[in-house]
Specification:
The protein is an alpha/beta fold. The protein contains 7 helices and 8 strands; from the N terminus they run αβαααβββββαββαα. A 5-stranded mixed beta sheet has the order 2-5-6-7-8. A 3-stranded mixed beta sheet has the order 1-4-3.
């Protein structure tokens, strides 16, 4: 399988570095507020906040467990309901060119599942309680679409769906344990293309307006007014 080439041909590392880089996190930002997305790509990101150490630890343990499954072939109970076979990726972070839009797409996959002759991206989610399929589609459907697009561009046949493995705490008698719930949702590539096209239009235009009610834009406007600056 030609994983080093896209269906548009090989893309050099130098040419990739020259293209604006977008990912699920920045494209999700675009859906929330075009101005925040524009600022992000112009090196003016939103304020960052610390991530809970428990979430960082869970992420590391999930990756370690999946790596062990790939090497040893033994699937633990927590991952036993995932349909298909865990397979290794050329690298966990895929960077692919979208030449028709002059963009570079970054996709950070947690795992890849082989289902027959096709492949399905898997993403781990750690939360207080599991989300249903509708909520997963609302909040993370774009993420799955981006992953499918990235996989397709480097030569993987995909089903345009994604698997989400949700990890959450439950009370088990007198003990607390971590449970998992596996959900598969449709994540069409067309959705990723639609958002990427919108991103390209914003990059080609002048500075966009912020979304009404965006707390970050409102906060920035308040700071600018207090400092006597022009925000236009």
């Amino acid at each position: 399988m030609g994983h080093a080439r896209s269906r548009f041909g090989a893309t050099s590392q130098r040419s990739l570095e020259k293209l604006p880089k977008v990912s699920f996190s920045s494209l999700k930002l675009l859906e929330e507020c075009p101005l925040c997305f524009w600022r992000y790509l112009h090196k003016q990101p939103r304020p960052s906040f610390p991530i809970a150490s428990a979430l960082i630890r869970m992420d590391l343990l999930q990756k370690t467990l999946i790596d062990k499954v790939i090497v040893e072939g033994t699937v633990p109970e927590a991952l036993s309901r995932i349909p298909g076979k865990f397979v290794s990726l050329p690298q966990s972070t895929l960077t692919v060119s979208i030449p028709e839009l002059s963009l570079s797409l970054i996709a950070k996959l947690d795992a890849l599942i082989q289902a027959g002759e096709s492949f399905v991206p898997l993403d781990n989610k750690t939360a207080g309680a599991p989300k249903d399929a509708d909520a997963l589609s609302k909040y993370f459907g774009l993420q799955g679409s981006i992953y499918n697009l990235a996989l397709q561009r480097i030569g993987y046949p995909v089903e345009e769906r994604s698997i989400f493995c949700q990890w959450f705490p439950v009370l088990d008698g007198n003990d607390i344990r971590v449970a998992t719930e596996v959900t598969s949702i449709e994540t069409p590539i067309a959705k990723a293309i639609e958002v990427l096209e919108r991103a390209r239009r914003i990059l080609d235009a002048n500075r966009p307006s912020g979304s009404p009610g965006c707390p970050y834009c409102s906060w920035g406007l308040g700071v600018a007014i207090n400092q006597g600056k022009d925000t236009a």
